[in-house]
Amino acid sequence: MSQLQSPQLIEALQQYDSATVANAIEHFEVRDPTMGYANNELVCQMPEVGAPMVGYALTVTADTTTPGDTRTSRVDDLVEAIDLAPKPSVLVVQHVGHDRKRCCLFGDMFCTIASKLGCVGFVTDANGRDRSAIRQRTPDFHVFSTGWVVSHGYGVYIDFNVTVSVCGLTISPGDLLHGDESGLVSVPIDIAADMVKRAEAVREEEAEYFDFLESDRFNMAELKRRIIPHE
Description:
The protein is of the alpha/beta class. 32% of the residues lie in helices and 25% in strands. The strands form 3 sheets. Strands 1, 2, 3, 5, 7, 9, 12 and 13 form an 8-stranded mixed sheet that branches.
């Protein structure tokens, strides 16, 4: 489990969009710039939610699509795990079953329960249902999934608090996640506090860049100097 950050830091991270956070992480050179974020299969399904999703990963594997499945659902264990998870929590569920494109892992009832227990978002490489009802009942709840299907199948929750892989992003229990309509990125805990200052610097640098593009200072030589990566 990763070291928890202060509520003030979590709130500070919510002030920056996920692309800015990703840029700020690169400054610290703690991982390869091609790593640490989900691919384009994972879609922010509720972009109208105001602040970005920031929280600690509660990881689970699950299946809803194996015909004739008689395994115990363990949904009661899942609810208890959400209740006990560090807050704010993000439920991350990797599909491990028969047919990922038909797998349905959440709906309006489950999202309402999760929100009630201090979970701020759901992340999965599978699907959900009840899209409009989720928006109505839990307007502040984030959903990142690959799509939507109409039926719930037969849900079984298998492994809890294990490292999972969701749309190209490896997520361990307790990882700090940041997500918005641009996608989902994992924030290294060790740099989280320092990264807030860097994110503000990124925002200021980008504002100055756009000012340059719109000003009479714009010229090709200066543009090339700015866009070519510096050693």
